[in-house]
User: What shape does this take?
Amino acid sequence: GIEPIPQRPALPLVGHAFSVPSGADGLLHVMKEAKELGPLFRLRIFGNDINFISGLDLVTELADETRFRKNVHPDLVVLRAIGGDGLFTAFNDEPNWRKAHDILMPAFSLGAMRGYHATMLKVARELIGKWDRAAGTEPVDVAADMTRLTFDTIGLCGFGFDFESFGREEAHPFVTSLSRALGFAQEKGESIPGTEIFKWRQAEQFRGDVTLMQGLVDDVIRQRRASGDQSTDDLLGRMLHTRDAVTGEPLDDVNIRHQAITFLIAGHETTSGALSFALYYLTKHPEVLARAQAEVDALWGDTDAPEPDYADIGKLTYIRQVLNEGLRLWPTAPVYAVEPLEDTVIGGKYAVRKGESLLVLIPQLHRDPAWGENVELFDPDRFLPEREDARPVHLFKPFGNGERACIGRQFALHEATLVLALLIHRYRLIDHTNYQLKIKQSLTLKPDEFTLDLARRTAAE
Ligand code: HEM
Assistant: This one.
């Protein structure tokens, strides 16, 4: 028979709204609720039902694309003010999704990664320049520097545009506007309906931030057009100069702007967080760090200036395991949502309606008992190849599901593996504050206020 979806008793009108703290504490709260209420539970926020899914069996059922598709949930709808019908925020029935997806896919093939490698390395060396100057002198702000790195990397690889983040004291204005805009979007999603009117000042700031980001993207596009460059080697070149095979049309200018802004955001936020969490866990697990350093030392010895080539990245299997295990515990895009194509029953007993949001709470899926005992323990051996082969397909979902899954995953992993390897090859990571993990959430996750002291490694270490 049909059973009601588990939920706590709710207040009239507001539902559970007042029991859910905002920001990252909200995420920790729903993770705790999932532990107590089970693999599917419901929150009612001012009359809106939100279903949280975190069990392997349900996530596996929801991965079936003949029954479910991506749901553009309310937080993503807010982001459409920034990304419009760009790939990430497009509704399934918007024709620009298929068109842009087909045009851009070749830019994310393995072959394309080979083309990005030298640029990724160049940006990594700028980070190293900065960290060399800081070593032994002053601590580094890990997430801020990882953001400099990932933002410049997507700028150069995707758009041939140098944001020069390492030449700046402050974050690039695009990044500052973005983080404020994401904060506003998140707050808006959580606020009491009708109170938006009291936030006119922030709303005005939000509009200003969106205008700044759009203006910057328009400059990047204008400069490329003015250069007369017709190549299709990067994202921007493909968008400007290739036609969709189905319609024979190129992307229109408004859509190119939405895609460009989408890639500048999606291309750096989450990778930056993933690198920051990996450095955090390496700092706290010297035995893992030692194994990772043994791997890079075997490849590059104690040379001061390693020359990683494209093929080296595939050899850094333990580094990759470290990144995966970090993404298991803190998948930096912590939620994706699907909706049923028709009214249906899930888990054999819960009725759900066509179009209803079903939110997959990825950090909790990644703590499912199917991972074994001690799911909180950071243990990269979970990703040993032989154990990966035995793992249920849908137990690890940091990049989402199906055709709307992350288009940039190879890009992110190539970049992050290269950078993490270079950093641990060169530095000792000194936990000078005895850092206690505090998670910052502005739609994506980062370790908050995580700083490290650095020292150059010597041959003996
Ligand atoms: C989609 C995670 C890096 C571009 C997604 C989704 C997730 C995700 C979970 C699905 C969202 C949903 O279903 O609503 C991540 C993580 C990354 C990462 C954890 C890094 C560790 C990147 C990079 C790029 C990128 C480097 C671009 C260079 C995109 C785009 C989409 C997407 C365009 C939308 C795809 C579509 O719907 O067609 N990502 N991502 N991501 N990601 Fe990523």
Remarks:
- The two ends are 63 Å apart (CA to CA).
- The chain has a mean pLDDT of 93.
